[in-house]
Structures are given as C-alpha cells and as structure tokens.
Amino acid sequence: MRQRPLHFYYPLFMALAAACAIVPLAGWQWHGWLIGAVLLAAGGAAAVFAPAAGAAVASSDDYLVSRRHFGEQVATVWASHIDASRTQMETAVVALVGRFSSIVMKLEQALAASGAARSHEGGSIVEVSAASEKELRSLLDMLAGAAASKQQMLHKIEGLQEITVQLQKMAADVASIAWQTNLLALNAAIEAARAGEAGRGFAVVATEVRMLSNRSADIGKQIAQQVGQISAAIGATSQAAGESSREENRAAQASEAVIGKVLSSFRGITDALVQSSDLLQRESSGIQAEVSDALMQLQFQDRVSQILAHVQQNIARLPSYLDEHAQRSGAALLPLDPSGLLAELESTYAMAEERTLHGHSALAQPQPQQHQQAEELTFF
Amino acid sequence: MAKTIMVVDDSISIRQVVGIALKQAGYDVFEASDGKDALAKLTGQKVNLIISDVNMPNMDGISFVRELKTRPAYKFTPVLMLTTESQEDKKEQGKAAGARAWMVKPFKPEALLAAVQKLTMA
Q1: What ipTM is given for this predicted complex?
Q2: In chain A, what residues touch B21 (CB-CB under 8 Å)?
Q3: pTM of the entire structure?
C-alpha cells in the first residue's frame, strides 16, 4: 500500500495545535472544548480529503508530462519515417530520370544517325543512288561507243584488203606487160639479125628493150611480193582487231551485267534503309509524345515530396504545440483544439490540391487526374 | 549559337526533367539548387532565360528574382517562375519582383518549350 506523505497530515497537526491553544485560553470551559473539538474534526477531515485533491493535481501534471513525451517520441519516429521515405523516393526518381534521360539521348542519336543515312551533302540516299546509276550507265555507253568506233576501224581495215587485191592484179598486169614486151623485143632482135649490118643499131635497141622488160618483170614480182606481204599484214591486223572487238563486246556485256547486279544490290540496301528510316521517323513522333508524357509523370516526386515535407514539419511541431497547450491550460486541463496546428499546416501549402484536401479532408481523396491537368501559364 | 538557360530548383528530379526537355530542344542548360546558389553562380555570364522554382530552402524564388533585378548584368534577363504554387497573391509577388511569366507544375515539356521560346525571343 502506498504510504501517504507527511504533508498530508499538516492540517490535522495544525488543528490539534489550535485546539490545544484554544482550550486553555477559553479557561477550560465547555465552549473551549467545543471549539477545540470542531477544529480537530476539521483538521481530521482536511487530513483525510487533502490527499485526494493533491492526487488529482499530481495526476494531471503526470498526464501533461506523459502527453508531451508521447508527442515527442511518436512525432520524432513519424517524422523520421516520412523523411526516409522522401529521401528514398527522391533517390529512386532521380536515378529513374537519369536513365530515362540516357534513353532519350540514345533515341535522339539513333534518329540523327538515321536522318544522316537518308541524306548527306549531295542529297538523299535515293538521289545518290540514282545519280550513281546514271553515271555508271554513261560509262557503259562510253564503252559501247568505243566498241562501235573499233568496229568502224575494222571495216576500214577490211576495205584495205580489197585495195591490196587490186594492187596484186596491177602487179600481175605489170608482169604480163613485161613478159609480152620481152617477147616483142626478142622478135625485134631476130628481125634485126636478119637485116644484117643494117639492123645492128635496131638490135642494140631490141636488147635494151628486153633488159627493160626483164627489169619490169622483176619489179612487177617485187610489187606482187610486197603487196602480198601488205595483204597478209592487213589480214592479220583485221583478224586481231576483230578478235579484240569481240573481246571488248564480251567485256562490255559482262561489265553491264556486273554493274546491273551491283546497282540492284545497292538499290535493295538503300530501299531497306529508307524503309527502316521512314519507320523510325514515323515512330519517333509517337515516341516523342510518350517521352513528353513520361516527363510530366515524373514530376510526381516533387509534388509528393512537398506534401510529405509539409506534413513532416507539422508532425515535428506537434510536441511543442502540446507543450504550449499544457502551459496555457495549467491544471485546468482545457480541451485540446487542433485548429491552431491545422492552421499552421495550411499556411505551408503550395498546391491547390493540398488546400482542397484540407478543406474536405473527410470527403476528398487525392484525384490523380488533378495532377494531369494542363499546366497553367501566365505572362506578366 | 545555342541559348543558355539557368534552372533553379531544389528538386533534383525537376531540374533533370527541365534539363531533358530544354537540351532536347537545343538549349544549353546549367543548374542551381536554390536562390542563393543561383546568385553565387551568376557571375556576369550571358544567360538568355532563368527558370526558377518559388518554394526553396536558403532563398526562395521571389527573393531571388528581387535580388537578381538589382544586378545590372541581369536586370533585363527574363525569369519564368515554374512552381506548384498557383495562388494569385504569390503570382502577384512574383510579378512585383520582376518575373515575366508564371507556370504551374506539373508541366508538359512542349508547353514549357513554347513559353521558353516566347521569352527568349529578343
């Protein structure tokens, strides 16, 4: 059983002392005894009831102290948790935005590379392809032109062959005339010999004519030989030129086939590149819209962090608010009014929805679509 | 030559998001975490626009703009307030301090870019 403190008996002691003083002063009369008895009764009653009143005062002090301790301890833990949550959320969102930023940058690089592949200083890749094809075609035309020119030259060489045939014939004619001249000179020499002395001079002439006809025959042979050689050379040249021309034609045809194949492959590649590039460019507008939306969504962290910071500050304020209330109310234990603390919370608000929630806290729930409203812009 | 924009906000994620949007559009961006930090970083270099939050530790956005306008180098630098705050009295404070526009977060990047383009046309 709890022992009562000594001060609880002070009224009884005082009443006893007063009674002891009153009775002798009253001359040991009956009324002195009566007053003494009344004092003793009052002192006894005071000694009995005073502890109860004291206990009530002591328990209210204890209550206020415990309430402050409660506020300090609970508010500290709540505030710590909120702070830790804010920090964690901020770290996570910052990392998320960082990665997102990296993705956006890579996407931009891909788009830029795709755009660069489609076009360079000389124009689009399709134009470059068409220009290359045109240039290669003109090269093929040049090759064909050269082949035609060679063919003409070949015809002219073949024309030379006919001239050599005529030359051969002319050489044969020379040889024939020389032979006939020789016969004629021989007859003349015979006739000169028959004429005797008178024909001696004529015989000299006939001899000279024979010698000339012999030389003509030799020259005719030589011409025939030379023309034969020229004809053989022209024939060989014509054959070689024909072979060369045929070879060049084959090369030109092979070149055309190879060039066509290369151009076809190149066209296939450029077509695929243009198609994939077109697809990427088309998709990029959709991706841009997604990026824009994501950038807006990612701003939730700032808003949530602000709301939590305001609540955290208000929670941290709770112990001192309780303490101030305790000091104001003293032992009277006035009712605890939350309006002051809530007014302090309201004064920290920055966002419209905080104020809306505050005004209708019992009804309102956070409206996600409110966060997605179009931004408000004011120019001053 | 790319225009330079300073972003002042205590939220790292908001600075990042604004940075992504602006860099995508070809602007040069540098950051400060509050008004005091921003004033320390503004040492006379050319800045075409400042985008500032309002509620920040150390020095809030309104005080920052007021202080900025006392510096000759930045007297005419346009300031866009980008904040969750939408109260008219706050906007009036921003206008009085010398801000040129007020945008409420969350913002759409294209809307921010449109405002930035308008404010940097000079």
Answers
A1: 0.91
A2: 295
A3: 0.62
